[in-house]
Amino acid sequence: xxxxxxxxxxxxGQSSNLLTRIAAALVLAPIAIVCAYVGGWxxxxxxxxxxxxxxxxxxxxxxxxxxxxxxxxxxxxxxxAGILLAIGSIETAVMMLGLGVVAVVVLAPGLRGxxxxxxxxxxxxxxxxxxVRLDRAEGLVxxxxxxLVVWVTDIGGYFVGRGIGGPxxxxxxxxxxxxxxxxxGFVASLTVAAAxxxxxxxxxxxxxxxxxxxxxxxxxxxxxxxxxxxxFGVKDSSHIxxxxxxxMDRLDGFVAAIVLAAIFGLLRGGLDGVGRALMVW
Length: 281
Hints:
This protein is an all-alpha fold. The chain is 76% helix and 3% strand. Strands 1-2 form a two-stranded antiparallel ribbon.
């Protein structure tokens, strides 16, 4: 009779990192939920601070840390746009962001393309996050849906991927991600979408398709950020969040999902109906 081998115990470093990740999530998730619930200037302030941090980290990742004027001008544009969004001047905020990308490109002679792309990335995240929550009728529910889909996609992918292992999803870009993890996160997102449908938000198949699209976008956003870091030879965008790395490492999936949600909501519901377009079918 062959001897059955016990499953290898997790390395001490891995267990410690997992506990750190959980502790950080238990602090950050309630802050995000409270700000989302209150909405208005509080949510916009959180989004604006986060996007300014994303821009700074992007510049660090691409090696544009010496392009101080470009980074500062982009941060100022995001700040002013946040203030304009808080007082309801959406069109003016969009114009400010347009001026911001021009300023960043002009003031970053060494890495104009990459710096400009970074500002567009953060500006899109800022606008999308605000527009989804802006809808007074369904904005909060729509935003919570996006947050939960992104979170369970990440959590499901992490635990299923580590538990099952198997073929890598894209080893050249992200060597730790597996197909099992991607499928696990995807299935978890469908569970969240089905729960919203069971609570009366939209038809079941419509919500499942929406949850699937947001989950795929979240995973692609994660891979996109990994590809950027791999291209520039960077492991983490920063070390501001214990166990998670930087804001880019933590928000990559959310940025992709919220931008997709905002685009879909705008096309279906218009500027003041993004939330309803996502939740009412």
